[in-house]
Design goal:
Distance between the termini of chain A: 52 Å
Structural class of chain A: alpha/beta
Radius of gyration of chain A: 24 Å
Number of helices of chain A: 15
Number of domains of chain A: 2
CATH architecture of the largest domain in chain A: 3-Layer(aba) Sandwich
Mean pLDDT of chain A: 95
Low-confidence stretches of chain A: none
CATH topology of the largest domain in chain A: Aldehyde Dehydrogenase, Chain A, domain 1
Strand order of the largest sheet of chain A: 10-9-11-8-7-12-13
Largest sheet of chain A: 7 strands, parallel
Oligomer: homodimer
Chain lengths: 414, 414
Amino acid sequence: MDLNQMGQAAKSAATVLGQLSTIEKNRALNLMADELQNKASEILAANKIDIDSAEENGIEGVMLDRLKLDNEIIDAMADGLRQVSSLADPIGEEIKGWVTEDGLNISQVRVPLGVLGMIFEARPNVTVDAAGLAFKSGNAVILRGGKEALHSNIELAKVLRTALKENDFPVDAVQMIDNPDHAIANQLMNLTEYIDVLIPRGSAKFIQMVVKNSTVPVIETGAGNCHIYVDETADLKQAVDIIVNAKTQRPSVCNAMEKLVVQRSIADKFLPMVEEALHAYNVELRGDAATKEVLPDIKLATEEDWSTEYNDFIMAIKVVDTLDEAISHINKYNTKHSEAIITKSYDASQKFTKEIDAAVVYVNASTRFTDGFKFGFGAEIGISTQKLHARGPMGLNELTSTKYIVRGEGQARK
Amino acid sequence: MDLNQMGQAAKSAATVLGQLSTIEKNRALNLMADELQNKASEILAANKIDIDSAEENGIEGVMLDRLKLDNEIIDAMADGLRQVSSLADPIGEEIKGWVTEDGLNISQVRVPLGVLGMIFEARPNVTVDAAGLAFKSGNAVILRGGKEALHSNIELAKVLRTALKENDFPVDAVQMIDNPDHAIANQLMNLTEYIDVLIPRGSAKFIQMVVKNSTVPVIETGAGNCHIYVDETADLKQAVDIIVNAKTQRPSVCNAMEKLVVQRSIADKFLPMVEEALHAYNVELRGDAATKEVLPDIKLATEEDWSTEYNDFIMAIKVVDTLDEAISHINKYNTKHSEAIITKSYDASQKFTKEIDAAVVYVNASTRFTDGFKFGFGAEIGISTQKLHARGPMGLNELTSTKYIVRGEGQARK
């Protein structure tokens, strides 16, 4: 199908979808969930085509695992849709309401954005997640997955669309691009007439490619070169526990810790504690010259290390004299995602939270909490690292816009 | 000065500015206001250069008037800054705050966007307005005005910067590009490393040029092809009053009415009332075939008319059978700015406000109220016609982002 036609169809579907009641939207989400489970064997058959061709192409390990679907994963995707149906509907919420000096009643209410574009790599479950969140927030979505998961994605979208079609919901609320050509992705990134916002999901490199090539507004998600700064007043045992959690619990994700910044006055005592704790997880440490004085066996960090998101069992350490130095270092190298201070000093906590420029700034907690579910949003479409529209974990509210409704009794402007 | 250096200087200034207290920011705004009045003769001398060269180039009428400064206008600009100082400071406001299931205290607080780019045509007062609003909201601003007002803009920025510099405020919070080359404007539109958002002000054509050429995120402002729909239940006298106000009070602005949509059952009675009322203001009427049956002397509207923003004493009229037809016509041709229904029907008012896709939707009031001042924001940087980040009149809040501050007691993620 031509992308312009898909855009037009999405826009028409969005018009209908934007007017559905919460009950109707929830019914559709549950029907889509049921259909996923009913059609599990078809989905797994399509997935097998992707897995076979991935293996032929030498894809293995984590990359192959990410592609693989089974009945349990399909059940989890279906449950995900049911969970979205149980979330509060953001649409129609009155955010503010007031009466102006002219006697006009103004309400600012939440409305859908319209048509979302989602462009993503690997994991086919994004198809179902994104379709569910878009649907609940009243938006039509055009999806474009990675070519490795093409057959899985097409089948998943087909199943969701069947559930919509058979129950008289707007079928084009969920559309999947079935042409794996790069040229089509580029066309999608420039389909300004139909797409209100594009949300890329994938590696930092992939997201930067989308940002650079899109004229459709993009919400940048995901890159996280996250720091933890431990000052001289910190509870060092607590600091070690938080670092172990932030670095090792799931190092491949964007809210995992990548860099440790330590105040010089505690370096001699604290750094060996960190080395010992992380040794148990085989974390490779790198450090600046001052760190190497305390931990002589580790590798010297290069300038490149300070800006690198490893997404792996690697961590670089920087020693600083003061909080000011820690703040400038972090503000220089961070990706504006999640940064933490471990301290018992009230003044340091105030200064750090005010001056660090990031979506989420922590005091005495792990950066791993930057997450729509952990924040209590009940959903997550991504973590925005930009400042416009949405910043930090994005739930349903972040997929909405607003409009002002003004009710008068014949007012004209003087 | 090189644009990269300006960007870097703006970013540094923004860091300082973002941490200033409200009292300090207000003091700076008042000092800038005083300095404008103290340096009125220098400003008028610079303005004279622009006026002389405009006259040499054959610029006249409204275009020339827009360029002209006098003592009264300078006083008004200074008072504008003083008024901004009296507005509530958006920075630091806690928008939401809650405790998560893990016992983390989360606050979502307003922070500045960082560095704004303003690119505008003609009127030099935008220099002062934009500088004041940016400063109050904690943002540095890089301004680029039209070449006709180059000397005036440079002098105004110089005066504002003097007030900042002499009082130890970050002088690069306000910077004006003094090179009128188009190439520089293009560079500004792509200065993604330093500029967080670009706000164009000017004609619809100018704004579209900026949207197309920018990789920096743009907030689209201003284009307004505004409709008023009058249904068969309307108080026709009230409808005429609102139409006269919306069409004629200030036809050059974006919230002025451009199109009238009328329900067929009242066309015979209502259209002659409209013609008579607008005749007094020399408004040229154009209409579809059905309108011409009632008002045979008017020009037949073409397809182009339906999507044209005249910004002039011209109005096109469309006759429809039903509310549904009115809504589809408006949603097809409008610029998502301001749309109104005049009705006594509760059902029609509900349907219209729900289904019309626009920043502001009115019942029984003039579209001319779409304005930051009339909305009670105390300021206006523009009217956003896009759905991301801000929609409708933009005041100080719309020049901010947010960050999450998370306070814990050692929490690690399970």
